[in-house]
Amino acid sequence: MLAAIDLLAQSAPAMYFNPLKLLAAIVLFVAYALFSQWVDKDTVRVNTYKILWNLVVLAVGIVSTVTMLFVPQFLIGSLVFLVMYIIIVAVYVVHRNGLVEEQYKVLTPEHISRVMKEGFGGNKKKLIDVKERVRLLAGKKVIAIPEVQEEREQYRLAQDMLFAVLWRRAALVEIVPAGQASKITFQIDGITSEYGRPPRAEGDAIVAFLKRACGLNLEERRKPQTGQLTAVTGDNRIDLLIRTDGSAAGERLTLRCVGPEKTYKIPDLGLTDAQKDQIMELVHGGNGVTLLTATPASGLTTTTYALARSHDAFLLNIQTLEYNKEFQIENVTQHVYEPSPEKTFAADLLKIVRTDPDVIFIPEIRDKEAAKIACEAGAHKQKVYVAFQAIDPLDAIWKWLRLLGDNGLVAKSLRAVVNQRLIRKLCPECKQPYKPDAAQLRKLNLPPDKVLYRPPEPQYDKNGQPIICQNCHGTGYYGRTGVFDVAIVDDALRDVLKRAKTLAEIQSHLQKQGSGGIQAQALQKVFDGTTSIQEVVRATKPPAAKEGDGAPAPPSAPPAGGAGSAPRPQNPGSKPAQPTR
Ligand SMILES: [Zn+2]
Fold first, then answer.
1. Which of 109, 245, 355, 449 has CA atoms 20 to 30 A from the CA of 64?
2. pLDDT tens digit string along 422-433?
3. How far is CA 451 from the centre of its chain?
4. In which residue ranges of the chain is CATH 3.30.450.90 found?
5. How far is the CA of 183 from the centre of ligand 1 (A)?
6. Fold for domain 263-565?
7. d(CA 293, ligand 1 centre) in Å
8. In the chain, how long is the greatest CA-to-CA distance?
9. Architecture category of domain 135-258 in CATH
10. Which residues have a Cβ under 8 Å from the Cβ of 419 and sit 6 or more positions away?
11. What secondary structure letter does DSSP report for 456?
Protein backbone atom coordinates (compact mmCIF):
# COMPACT_ATOMS: atom_id res chain seq x y z
CA MET A 1 0.00 0.00 0.00
CA LEU A 2 2.71 2.42 1.03
CA ALA A 3 4.64 1.44 -2.02
CA ALA A 4 1.68 2.22 -4.20
CA ILE A 5 1.32 5.73 -2.72
CA ASP A 6 5.02 6.23 -3.11
CA LEU A 7 4.78 5.24 -6.75
CA LEU A 8 1.86 7.58 -7.35
CA ALA A 9 3.75 10.46 -5.81
CA GLN A 10 6.75 9.77 -8.01
CA SER A 11 4.87 9.25 -11.26
CA ALA A 12 2.75 12.39 -10.98
CA PRO A 13 4.62 15.06 -9.08
CA ALA A 14 2.47 17.87 -10.57
CA MET A 15 -0.62 16.45 -8.87
CA TYR A 16 0.83 17.23 -5.49
CA PHE A 17 -0.23 20.55 -3.95
CA ASN A 18 0.30 21.92 -0.54
CA PRO A 19 -3.26 22.75 0.67
CA LEU A 20 -2.10 26.19 1.87
CA LYS A 21 -0.68 27.01 -1.54
CA LEU A 22 -3.89 25.78 -3.14
CA LEU A 23 -5.91 28.06 -0.88
CA ALA A 24 -3.70 31.03 -1.72
CA ALA A 25 -4.12 30.32 -5.43
CA ILE A 26 -7.91 30.10 -5.06
CA VAL A 27 -8.02 33.40 -3.16
CA LEU A 28 -6.02 35.09 -5.94
CA PHE A 29 -8.28 33.63 -8.65
CA VAL A 30 -11.48 34.61 -6.86
CA ALA A 31 -10.18 38.14 -6.30
CA TYR A 32 -9.34 38.36 -9.99
CA ALA A 33 -12.74 37.01 -11.04
CA LEU A 34 -14.52 39.59 -8.84
CA PHE A 35 -12.38 42.35 -10.34
CA SER A 36 -13.17 41.32 -13.91
CA GLN A 37 -16.88 41.13 -13.08
CA TRP A 38 -16.75 44.63 -11.62
CA VAL A 39 -14.90 45.96 -14.70
CA ASP A 40 -17.60 44.45 -16.92
CA LYS A 41 -20.33 46.44 -15.13
CA ASP A 42 -18.26 49.53 -14.39
CA THR A 43 -17.34 50.14 -18.06
CA VAL A 44 -21.07 50.58 -18.74
CA ARG A 45 -21.46 52.87 -15.72
CA VAL A 46 -18.61 55.19 -16.67
CA ASN A 47 -19.30 54.86 -20.38
CA THR A 48 -15.98 53.50 -21.61
CA TYR A 49 -14.90 50.67 -23.95
CA LYS A 50 -16.50 47.59 -22.39
CA ILE A 51 -15.32 44.92 -24.82
CA LEU A 52 -11.78 46.28 -25.00
CA TRP A 53 -11.40 46.39 -21.21
CA ASN A 54 -12.88 42.91 -20.79
CA LEU A 55 -10.34 41.58 -23.31
CA VAL A 56 -7.44 43.36 -21.58
CA VAL A 57 -8.47 42.02 -18.16
CA LEU A 58 -8.91 38.52 -19.56
CA ALA A 59 -5.53 38.59 -21.34
CA VAL A 60 -3.69 39.82 -18.24
CA GLY A 61 -5.48 37.11 -16.20
CA ILE A 62 -4.38 34.35 -18.61
CA VAL A 63 -0.77 35.58 -18.78
CA SER A 64 -0.53 35.83 -14.97
CA THR A 65 -2.06 32.38 -14.44
CA VAL A 66 0.24 30.75 -16.96
CA THR A 67 3.26 32.48 -15.35
CA MET A 68 2.17 31.31 -11.91
CA LEU A 69 1.79 27.71 -13.09
CA PHE A 70 5.09 27.55 -14.96
CA VAL A 71 7.39 29.34 -12.52
CA PRO A 72 8.76 26.48 -10.41
CA GLN A 73 8.71 28.42 -7.11
CA PHE A 74 5.11 28.98 -6.06
CA LEU A 75 5.98 32.09 -4.03
CA ILE A 76 7.60 33.86 -6.97
CA GLY A 77 4.79 32.73 -9.31
CA SER A 78 2.06 34.10 -7.05
CA LEU A 79 4.02 37.33 -6.47
CA VAL A 80 4.16 37.84 -10.26
CA PHE A 81 0.42 37.19 -10.36
CA LEU A 82 -0.19 39.67 -7.55
CA VAL A 83 1.97 42.39 -9.13
CA MET A 84 0.23 42.05 -12.50
CA TYR A 85 -3.12 42.10 -10.72
CA ILE A 86 -2.24 45.32 -8.90
CA ILE A 87 -0.96 46.93 -12.12
CA ILE A 88 -4.11 46.16 -14.12
CA VAL A 89 -6.37 47.35 -11.26
CA ALA A 90 -4.36 50.58 -10.99
CA VAL A 91 -4.43 51.21 -14.75
CA TYR A 92 -8.17 50.66 -14.97
CA VAL A 93 -9.01 52.72 -11.86
CA VAL A 94 -6.89 55.68 -13.05
CA HIS A 95 -8.63 55.46 -16.44
CA ARG A 96 -12.19 55.24 -15.08
CA ASN A 97 -11.61 57.89 -12.37
CA GLY A 98 -10.53 60.25 -15.13
CA LEU A 99 -14.00 59.92 -16.67
CA VAL A 100 -16.18 60.70 -13.66
CA GLU A 101 -16.87 63.49 -11.19
CA GLU A 102 -15.11 63.55 -7.81
CA GLN A 103 -17.89 61.81 -5.86
CA TYR A 104 -17.97 58.83 -8.24
CA LYS A 105 -14.22 58.09 -8.10
CA VAL A 106 -13.10 54.83 -6.45
CA LEU A 107 -10.10 53.88 -4.29
CA THR A 108 -9.51 57.55 -3.46
CA PRO A 109 -8.95 58.39 0.26
CA GLU A 110 -12.54 59.80 0.38
CA HIS A 111 -13.97 56.69 -1.20
CA ILE A 112 -12.07 54.38 1.15
CA SER A 113 -13.11 56.33 4.25
CA ARG A 114 -16.72 56.33 3.04
CA VAL A 115 -16.64 52.55 2.58
CA MET A 116 -15.03 52.14 6.05
CA LYS A 117 -17.82 54.23 7.58
CA GLU A 118 -20.74 52.62 5.78
CA GLY A 119 -19.25 49.14 5.60
CA PHE A 120 -19.45 46.99 2.49
CA GLY A 121 -23.00 46.03 3.26
CA GLY A 122 -23.99 49.67 3.92
CA ASN A 123 -25.74 49.89 0.59
CA LYS A 124 -28.15 47.15 1.40
CA LYS A 125 -28.96 48.42 4.88
CA LYS A 126 -30.26 51.83 3.86
CA LEU A 127 -31.85 51.89 0.44
CA ILE A 128 -32.19 55.43 -0.81
CA ASP A 129 -35.63 56.88 -0.42
CA VAL A 130 -37.41 57.17 -3.78
CA LYS A 131 -40.97 58.12 -4.66
CA GLU A 132 -43.07 57.51 -7.73
CA ARG A 133 -43.81 61.01 -9.01
CA VAL A 134 -44.91 59.97 -12.49
CA ARG A 135 -46.61 56.63 -13.03
CA LEU A 136 -44.91 54.85 -15.92
CA LEU A 137 -46.30 52.01 -17.98
CA ALA A 138 -44.53 49.77 -20.45
CA GLY A 139 -47.47 48.40 -22.41
CA LYS A 140 -49.91 47.64 -19.59
CA LYS A 141 -47.25 46.85 -17.00
CA VAL A 142 -46.50 49.46 -14.33
CA ILE A 143 -42.78 50.15 -13.89
CA ALA A 144 -42.14 49.35 -10.23
CA ILE A 145 -39.61 51.10 -7.98
CA PRO A 146 -36.43 48.99 -8.26
CA GLU A 147 -35.00 47.14 -5.24
CA VAL A 148 -31.35 47.42 -6.25
CA GLN A 149 -29.59 50.52 -4.93
CA GLU A 150 -27.98 51.54 -8.21
CA GLU A 151 -31.25 51.19 -10.15
CA ARG A 152 -33.11 53.10 -7.43
CA GLU A 153 -30.78 56.04 -7.95
CA GLN A 154 -31.40 55.86 -11.72
CA TYR A 155 -35.15 55.67 -11.06
CA ARG A 156 -35.05 58.72 -8.77
CA LEU A 157 -33.14 60.85 -11.30
CA ALA A 158 -35.43 59.78 -14.17
CA GLN A 159 -38.57 60.45 -12.09
CA ASP A 160 -37.37 63.95 -11.19
CA MET A 161 -36.71 64.74 -14.84
CA LEU A 162 -39.99 63.24 -16.12
CA PHE A 163 -41.96 65.15 -13.50
CA ALA A 164 -40.39 68.38 -14.78
CA VAL A 165 -41.06 67.33 -18.38
CA LEU A 166 -44.79 66.86 -17.73
CA TRP A 167 -45.16 69.82 -15.40
CA ARG A 168 -43.55 72.16 -17.89
CA ARG A 169 -45.35 70.52 -20.85
CA ALA A 170 -42.14 69.77 -22.78
CA ALA A 171 -42.86 68.07 -26.10
CA LEU A 172 -39.28 67.10 -26.85
CA VAL A 173 -36.43 66.28 -24.48
CA GLU A 174 -32.83 65.63 -25.43
CA ILE A 175 -30.07 64.23 -23.25
CA VAL A 176 -26.76 64.77 -25.03
CA PRO A 177 -23.25 64.05 -23.70
CA ALA A 178 -21.23 67.25 -23.25
CA GLY A 179 -17.78 66.33 -21.96
CA GLN A 180 -17.96 65.47 -18.27
CA ALA A 181 -21.60 66.58 -18.14
CA SER A 182 -24.87 65.70 -19.84
CA LYS A 183 -26.82 68.51 -21.47
CA ILE A 184 -30.59 68.18 -21.03
CA THR A 185 -32.83 70.38 -23.18
CA PHE A 186 -36.62 70.77 -23.16
CA GLN A 187 -38.68 72.00 -26.08
CA ILE A 188 -41.78 73.75 -24.78
CA ASP A 189 -44.29 75.24 -27.22
CA GLY A 190 -41.66 75.02 -29.94
CA ILE A 191 -38.97 76.88 -28.00
CA THR A 192 -35.88 74.93 -26.90
CA SER A 193 -34.20 75.80 -23.62
CA GLU A 194 -31.64 74.12 -21.40
CA TYR A 195 -33.14 72.28 -18.44
CA GLY A 196 -29.83 71.42 -16.82
CA ARG A 197 -26.28 70.13 -17.12
CA PRO A 198 -25.93 67.36 -14.51
CA PRO A 199 -22.74 65.28 -14.19
CA ARG A 200 -22.37 62.78 -17.02
CA ALA A 201 -23.01 59.88 -14.63
CA GLU A 202 -26.46 61.30 -13.79
CA GLY A 203 -27.40 61.85 -17.44
CA ASP A 204 -26.25 58.32 -18.25
CA ALA A 205 -28.25 57.00 -15.27
CA ILE A 206 -31.47 58.55 -16.67
CA VAL A 207 -30.72 57.09 -20.10
CA ALA A 208 -30.03 53.67 -18.54
CA PHE A 209 -33.31 53.73 -16.59
CA LEU A 210 -35.42 54.71 -19.62
CA LYS A 211 -33.73 52.10 -21.80
CA ARG A 212 -34.29 49.35 -19.24
CA ALA A 213 -37.90 50.47 -18.68
CA CYS A 214 -38.83 50.08 -22.34
CA GLY A 215 -36.84 46.92 -22.86
CA LEU A 216 -33.98 48.25 -24.98
CA ASN A 217 -30.55 46.65 -25.08
CA LEU A 218 -28.48 48.43 -22.41
CA GLU A 219 -25.20 47.24 -23.88
CA GLU A 220 -25.94 48.68 -27.33
CA ARG A 221 -24.97 52.32 -27.14
CA ARG A 222 -24.24 53.13 -30.76
CA LYS A 223 -26.94 51.78 -33.09
CA PRO A 224 -30.32 53.56 -32.99
CA GLN A 225 -32.94 51.93 -30.77
CA THR A 226 -36.53 53.02 -30.20
CA GLY A 227 -39.03 52.24 -27.49
CA GLN A 228 -42.21 53.54 -25.92
CA LEU A 229 -43.59 54.18 -22.43
CA THR A 230 -46.79 55.78 -21.20
CA ALA A 231 -46.73 58.42 -18.46
CA VAL A 232 -49.88 58.82 -16.40
CA THR A 233 -50.65 61.87 -14.27
CA GLY A 234 -54.26 62.22 -13.15
CA ASP A 235 -56.44 61.66 -16.20
CA ASN A 236 -53.66 62.46 -18.64
CA ARG A 237 -51.91 59.75 -20.56
CA ILE A 238 -48.85 60.89 -22.46
CA ASP A 239 -46.96 58.63 -24.84
CA LEU A 240 -43.21 58.85 -24.37
CA LEU A 241 -41.43 57.89 -27.60
CA ILE A 242 -37.82 57.12 -26.80
CA ARG A 243 -34.93 56.94 -29.22
CA THR A 244 -31.27 56.35 -28.39
CA ASP A 245 -28.22 56.37 -30.60
CA GLY A 246 -24.52 56.95 -30.28
CA SER A 247 -22.03 59.47 -31.61
CA ALA A 248 -18.31 59.93 -31.02
CA ALA A 249 -19.17 61.93 -27.91
CA GLY A 250 -21.30 59.16 -26.41
CA GLU A 251 -24.87 57.97 -26.26
CA ARG A 252 -27.74 60.41 -26.56
CA LEU A 253 -31.44 60.08 -25.95
CA THR A 254 -34.44 61.81 -27.49
CA LEU A 255 -37.79 61.67 -25.77
CA ARG A 256 -40.92 62.84 -27.58
CA CYS A 257 -44.07 63.39 -25.57
CA VAL A 258 -47.29 62.88 -27.50
CA GLY A 259 -50.41 64.05 -25.73
CA PRO A 260 -53.87 64.93 -27.00
CA GLU A 261 -52.66 65.77 -30.54
CA LYS A 262 -52.70 62.06 -31.35
CA THR A 263 -56.51 62.22 -31.49
CA TYR A 264 -56.92 65.69 -33.06
CA LYS A 265 -59.53 66.25 -35.74
CA ILE A 266 -60.24 69.31 -37.90
CA PRO A 267 -61.91 71.43 -35.16
CA ASP A 268 -58.84 71.08 -32.90
CA LEU A 269 -56.34 72.63 -35.30
CA GLY A 270 -57.02 76.38 -34.99
CA LEU A 271 -58.73 76.99 -38.34
CA THR A 272 -61.10 79.98 -38.60
CA ASP A 273 -64.78 79.14 -39.11
CA ALA A 274 -64.54 80.02 -42.79
CA GLN A 275 -61.45 77.84 -43.21
CA LYS A 276 -63.12 74.98 -41.35
CA ASP A 277 -65.97 75.14 -43.87
CA GLN A 278 -63.49 75.13 -46.75
CA ILE A 279 -61.69 72.09 -45.36
CA MET A 280 -64.94 70.23 -44.62
CA GLU A 281 -65.94 70.82 -48.24
CA LEU A 282 -62.73 69.12 -49.30
CA VAL A 283 -63.40 66.23 -46.89
CA HIS A 284 -66.93 65.70 -48.16
CA GLY A 285 -66.27 66.79 -51.74
CA GLY A 286 -65.07 64.98 -54.84
CA ASN A 287 -61.75 63.74 -56.16
CA GLY A 288 -58.57 65.77 -56.56
CA VAL A 289 -55.23 66.54 -54.93
CA THR A 290 -54.91 68.70 -51.81
CA LEU A 291 -51.43 69.92 -50.85
CA LEU A 292 -50.81 70.17 -47.11
CA THR A 293 -47.76 72.33 -46.46
CA ALA A 294 -45.87 74.14 -43.70
CA THR A 295 -42.40 75.27 -42.74
CA PRO A 296 -40.36 72.76 -40.68
CA ALA A 297 -41.72 72.03 -37.18
CA SER A 298 -44.99 73.87 -37.88
CA GLY A 299 -47.51 71.15 -37.11
CA LEU A 300 -47.77 69.58 -40.56
CA THR A 301 -47.77 65.98 -39.30
CA THR A 302 -50.48 66.70 -36.74
CA THR A 303 -52.64 68.40 -39.40
CA THR A 304 -52.15 65.59 -41.92
CA TYR A 305 -53.21 62.93 -39.43
CA ALA A 306 -56.08 65.09 -38.12
CA LEU A 307 -57.43 65.33 -41.67
CA ALA A 308 -57.12 61.57 -42.13
CA ARG A 309 -59.06 61.09 -38.88
CA SER A 310 -61.77 63.48 -40.08
CA HIS A 311 -62.81 61.28 -43.01
CA ASP A 312 -65.45 58.67 -42.31
CA ALA A 313 -63.36 55.54 -41.86
CA PHE A 314 -66.46 53.30 -41.75
CA LEU A 315 -67.92 54.39 -45.05
CA LEU A 316 -64.72 55.09 -46.94
CA ASN A 317 -61.69 53.01 -47.82
CA ILE A 318 -58.83 55.21 -46.54
CA GLN A 319 -55.21 54.24 -47.08
CA THR A 320 -51.88 55.88 -46.41
CA LEU A 321 -48.36 55.36 -47.70
CA GLU A 322 -45.76 56.64 -45.26
CA TYR A 323 -42.01 56.66 -44.81
CA ASN A 324 -42.47 56.77 -41.02
CA LYS A 325 -45.69 55.92 -39.26
CA GLU A 326 -46.03 58.67 -36.67
CA PHE A 327 -49.47 57.80 -35.30
CA GLN A 328 -51.97 54.99 -35.54
CA ILE A 329 -55.31 55.95 -37.11
CA GLU A 330 -58.24 53.72 -36.31
CA ASN A 331 -59.81 51.90 -39.27
CA VAL A 332 -57.36 53.42 -41.73
CA THR A 333 -55.00 51.11 -43.63
CA GLN A 334 -51.56 52.55 -43.04
CA HIS A 335 -48.80 51.22 -45.32
CA VAL A 336 -45.19 51.89 -44.39
CA TYR A 337 -42.74 51.98 -47.27
CA GLU A 338 -39.70 49.75 -46.69
CA PRO A 339 -36.92 51.06 -48.94
CA SER A 340 -35.40 48.39 -51.18
CA PRO A 341 -33.71 48.38 -54.60
CA GLU A 342 -36.47 46.21 -56.09
CA LYS A 343 -39.43 48.25 -54.90
CA THR A 344 -39.76 52.03 -55.18
CA PHE A 345 -42.12 54.25 -53.22
CA ALA A 346 -43.91 55.02 -56.48
CA ALA A 347 -44.43 51.30 -57.20
CA ASP A 348 -45.96 50.83 -53.73
CA LEU A 349 -48.20 53.85 -54.31
CA LEU A 350 -49.35 52.49 -57.67
CA LYS A 351 -50.24 49.19 -56.01
CA ILE A 352 -52.38 51.04 -53.48
CA VAL A 353 -54.11 53.14 -56.17
CA ARG A 354 -54.99 49.93 -58.05
CA THR A 355 -56.87 48.60 -55.01
CA ASP A 356 -59.20 51.55 -55.64
CA PRO A 357 -59.38 53.28 -52.23
CA ASP A 358 -61.57 56.38 -51.75
CA VAL A 359 -58.94 58.47 -49.96
CA ILE A 360 -55.14 58.33 -50.07
CA PHE A 361 -52.83 60.13 -47.64
CA ILE A 362 -49.15 60.64 -48.48
CA PRO A 363 -47.56 62.40 -45.47
CA GLU A 364 -44.23 62.74 -47.28
CA ILE A 365 -43.36 62.68 -50.97
CA ARG A 366 -39.86 62.73 -52.41
CA ASP A 367 -39.95 61.89 -56.10
CA LYS A 368 -41.55 62.88 -59.39
CA GLU A 369 -42.77 59.37 -60.17
CA ALA A 370 -44.85 59.17 -56.98
CA ALA A 371 -46.14 62.73 -57.43
CA LYS A 372 -47.31 61.81 -60.92
CA ILE A 373 -49.19 58.75 -59.67
CA ALA A 374 -50.79 60.88 -56.94
CA CYS A 375 -51.92 63.49 -59.49
CA GLU A 376 -53.33 60.91 -61.87
CA ALA A 377 -55.24 59.21 -59.05
CA GLY A 378 -56.59 62.61 -57.98
CA ALA A 379 -57.54 63.55 -61.54
CA HIS A 380 -59.44 60.29 -62.06
CA LYS A 381 -61.23 59.22 -58.97
CA GLN A 382 -59.53 59.51 -55.61
CA LYS A 383 -59.22 62.16 -52.94
CA VAL A 384 -55.46 62.49 -52.47
CA TYR A 385 -53.68 64.46 -49.74
CA VAL A 386 -49.96 65.10 -50.16
CA ALA A 387 -47.84 66.79 -47.47
CA PHE A 388 -44.48 68.56 -47.90
CA GLN A 389 -42.62 71.63 -46.74
CA ALA A 390 -43.37 75.04 -48.23
CA ILE A 391 -43.44 78.56 -46.85
CA ASP A 392 -46.80 79.59 -48.34
CA PRO A 393 -49.41 78.38 -50.88
CA LEU A 394 -47.53 80.06 -53.73
CA ASP A 395 -44.27 78.31 -52.79
CA ALA A 396 -46.21 75.04 -52.48
CA ILE A 397 -47.79 75.33 -55.93
CA TRP A 398 -44.46 76.34 -57.48
CA LYS A 399 -42.62 73.38 -55.90
CA TRP A 400 -45.40 71.02 -57.01
CA LEU A 401 -45.27 72.33 -60.60
CA ARG A 402 -41.48 72.04 -60.70
CA LEU A 403 -41.52 68.53 -59.22
CA LEU A 404 -44.06 67.28 -61.78
CA GLY A 405 -43.01 69.33 -64.76
CA ASP A 406 -46.54 68.97 -66.14
CA ASN A 407 -48.75 72.06 -65.78
CA GLY A 408 -51.70 70.33 -67.44
CA LEU A 409 -51.74 67.45 -64.97
CA VAL A 410 -51.37 69.78 -61.97
CA ALA A 411 -54.17 72.06 -63.21
CA LYS A 412 -56.43 69.07 -63.83
CA SER A 413 -55.93 67.44 -60.42
CA LEU A 414 -55.25 70.18 -57.86
CA ARG A 415 -58.15 71.09 -55.54
CA ALA A 416 -56.60 73.14 -52.77
CA VAL A 417 -53.42 74.18 -51.02
CA VAL A 418 -53.18 74.51 -47.25
CA ASN A 419 -50.23 76.19 -45.55
CA GLN A 420 -49.72 76.61 -41.83
CA ARG A 421 -47.61 77.81 -38.91
CA LEU A 422 -47.87 77.22 -35.19
CA ILE A 423 -48.10 80.19 -32.85
CA ARG A 424 -47.89 80.21 -29.07
CA LYS A 425 -51.05 81.20 -27.18
CA LEU A 426 -50.71 83.80 -24.43
CA CYS A 427 -50.92 82.41 -20.91
CA PRO A 428 -54.47 83.12 -19.68
CA GLU A 429 -53.20 83.57 -16.12
CA CYS A 430 -50.67 86.32 -16.73
CA LYS A 431 -51.34 87.98 -20.11
CA GLN A 432 -51.51 91.77 -19.88
CA PRO A 433 -53.77 94.16 -21.78
CA TYR A 434 -52.19 97.27 -23.32
CA LYS A 435 -53.10 100.01 -25.75
CA PRO A 436 -50.75 100.14 -28.74
CA ASP A 437 -49.80 103.62 -29.93
CA ALA A 438 -52.05 105.31 -32.46
CA ALA A 439 -49.64 104.93 -35.38
CA GLN A 440 -49.37 101.18 -34.80
CA LEU A 441 -53.16 100.81 -34.63
CA ARG A 442 -53.57 102.80 -37.85
CA LYS A 443 -50.99 100.58 -39.56
CA LEU A 444 -52.94 97.50 -38.45
CA ASN A 445 -56.24 99.02 -39.54
CA LEU A 446 -57.67 98.85 -36.00
CA PRO A 447 -59.94 101.29 -34.12
CA PRO A 448 -58.03 103.78 -31.89
CA ASP A 449 -59.42 102.32 -28.61
CA LYS A 450 -58.45 98.71 -29.41
CA VAL A 451 -56.83 96.77 -26.54
CA LEU A 452 -54.27 94.06 -27.33
CA TYR A 453 -52.50 91.57 -25.07
CA ARG A 454 -48.89 90.63 -24.44
CA PRO A 455 -46.80 88.69 -21.88
CA PRO A 456 -46.22 90.58 -18.60
CA GLU A 457 -43.13 92.63 -17.84
CA PRO A 458 -40.85 90.88 -15.31
CA GLN A 459 -42.25 91.41 -11.80
CA TYR A 460 -40.50 91.30 -8.43
CA ASP A 461 -41.66 90.88 -4.86
CA LYS A 462 -40.61 93.08 -1.88
CA ASN A 463 -37.32 91.20 -1.55
CA GLY A 464 -36.44 91.67 -5.19
CA GLN A 465 -37.19 88.04 -6.02
CA PRO A 466 -38.78 87.53 -9.45
CA ILE A 467 -42.48 86.56 -9.36
CA ILE A 468 -42.96 83.71 -11.80
CA CYS A 469 -46.37 82.67 -13.12
CA GLN A 470 -47.02 79.09 -11.99
CA ASN A 471 -49.13 78.33 -15.04
CA CYS A 472 -46.60 79.14 -17.77
CA HIS A 473 -43.41 79.12 -15.62
CA GLY A 474 -42.67 82.65 -16.70
CA THR A 475 -42.66 82.16 -20.47
CA GLY A 476 -45.89 84.15 -20.88
CA TYR A 477 -47.31 81.53 -23.21
CA TYR A 478 -49.29 78.34 -22.74
CA GLY A 479 -49.85 75.91 -25.61
CA ARG A 480 -49.91 76.51 -29.34
CA THR A 481 -52.49 76.79 -32.10
CA GLY A 482 -52.28 76.53 -35.87
CA VAL A 483 -52.60 79.50 -38.20
CA PHE A 484 -53.68 78.60 -41.70
CA ASP A 485 -53.64 79.97 -45.20
CA VAL A 486 -56.06 78.05 -47.43
CA ALA A 487 -56.10 78.53 -51.20
CA ILE A 488 -58.90 76.82 -53.11
CA VAL A 489 -58.22 76.12 -56.78
CA ASP A 490 -61.11 77.69 -58.73
CA ASP A 491 -61.59 77.70 -62.51
CA ALA A 492 -59.66 80.96 -62.92
CA LEU A 493 -56.65 79.62 -60.98
CA ARG A 494 -56.87 76.37 -62.92
CA ASP A 495 -56.56 78.37 -66.13
CA VAL A 496 -53.54 80.24 -64.76
CA LEU A 497 -51.90 76.97 -63.67
CA LYS A 498 -52.29 75.46 -67.12
CA ARG A 499 -50.14 78.09 -68.76
CA ALA A 500 -48.17 79.65 -65.89
CA LYS A 501 -44.48 79.99 -66.67
CA THR A 502 -43.54 82.33 -63.84
CA LEU A 503 -44.29 82.71 -60.17
CA ALA A 504 -45.65 86.21 -60.71
CA GLU A 505 -48.60 84.97 -62.77
CA ILE A 506 -49.77 82.61 -60.03
CA GLN A 507 -48.95 85.13 -57.31
CA SER A 508 -51.13 87.86 -58.72
CA HIS A 509 -54.03 85.44 -58.96
CA LEU A 510 -53.63 84.18 -55.37
CA GLN A 511 -53.53 87.80 -54.16
CA LYS A 512 -56.80 88.46 -55.96
CA GLN A 513 -58.33 85.47 -54.18
CA GLY A 514 -57.23 87.31 -51.06
CA SER A 515 -56.70 85.24 -47.91
CA GLY A 516 -54.19 87.97 -47.03
CA GLY A 517 -51.48 85.43 -46.25
CA ILE A 518 -50.41 83.69 -43.09
CA GLN A 519 -49.41 86.89 -41.27
CA ALA A 520 -52.82 88.48 -41.81
CA GLN A 521 -54.43 85.29 -40.52
CA ALA A 522 -52.13 85.26 -37.49
CA LEU A 523 -52.95 88.90 -36.73
CA GLN A 524 -56.61 87.92 -36.35
CA LYS A 525 -55.44 85.86 -33.38
CA VAL A 526 -53.74 88.95 -31.96
CA PHE A 527 -56.93 90.98 -32.27
CA ASP A 528 -58.99 88.35 -30.45
CA GLY A 529 -56.44 88.16 -27.61
CA THR A 530 -55.14 84.66 -28.35
CA THR A 531 -51.58 85.73 -28.98
CA SER A 532 -49.27 88.74 -29.12
CA ILE A 533 -47.83 90.76 -31.98
CA GLN A 534 -44.32 89.74 -30.88
CA GLU A 535 -45.27 86.09 -31.24
CA VAL A 536 -46.74 86.60 -34.71
CA VAL A 537 -43.53 88.30 -35.83
CA ARG A 538 -41.47 85.43 -34.41
CA ALA A 539 -43.62 82.59 -35.72
CA THR A 540 -44.22 83.89 -39.23
CA LYS A 541 -40.62 84.76 -40.05
CA PRO A 542 -39.40 82.74 -43.02
CA PRO A 543 -37.50 79.66 -41.76
CA ALA A 544 -34.03 80.82 -42.80
CA ALA A 545 -34.20 84.01 -40.80
CA LYS A 546 -35.99 82.51 -37.82
CA GLU A 547 -33.91 82.17 -34.67
CA GLY A 548 -33.85 78.63 -33.31
CA ASP A 549 -34.95 79.61 -29.85
CA GLY A 550 -34.57 82.29 -27.25
CA ALA A 551 -36.65 85.26 -26.27
CA PRO A 552 -39.43 86.54 -28.52
CA ALA A 553 -38.53 89.41 -30.80
CA PRO A 554 -39.03 92.95 -29.48
CA PRO A 555 -42.46 94.46 -30.12
CA SER A 556 -42.90 95.89 -33.59
CA ALA A 557 -45.67 95.90 -36.13
CA PRO A 558 -45.33 93.25 -38.79
CA PRO A 559 -45.31 94.44 -42.39
CA ALA A 560 -48.66 94.40 -44.15
CA GLY A 561 -49.72 90.82 -44.92
CA GLY A 562 -50.18 89.18 -48.28
CA ALA A 563 -48.92 86.01 -49.84
CA GLY A 564 -46.58 88.08 -51.96
CA SER A 565 -44.89 89.77 -49.03
CA ALA A 566 -43.12 86.63 -47.90
CA PRO A 567 -39.63 86.30 -49.36
CA ARG A 568 -39.32 83.75 -52.13
CA PRO A 569 -37.19 80.68 -51.60
CA GLN A 570 -33.79 80.72 -53.28
CA ASN A 571 -34.55 77.57 -55.19
CA PRO A 572 -38.26 76.99 -55.61
CA GLY A 573 -37.58 73.92 -57.71
CA SER A 574 -35.93 71.98 -54.89
CA LYS A 575 -37.60 68.72 -53.99
CA PRO A 576 -40.17 68.83 -51.22
CA ALA A 577 -38.23 67.95 -48.11
CA GLN A 578 -39.21 65.66 -45.32
CA PRO A 579 -42.09 67.13 -43.38
CA THR A 580 -41.81 67.62 -39.66
CA ARG A 581 -44.35 68.05 -36.98
ZN1 LIG B 1 -48.50 82.72 -17.12
1. 109
2. 999 999 999 999
3. 39
4. 135-258
5. 26
6. Rossmann fold (3.40.50)
7. 31
8. 124
9. 2-Layer Sandwich (3.30)
10. 293, 294, 390, 391, 392, 393, 395, 396, 484, 485, 486, 487, 518
11. P
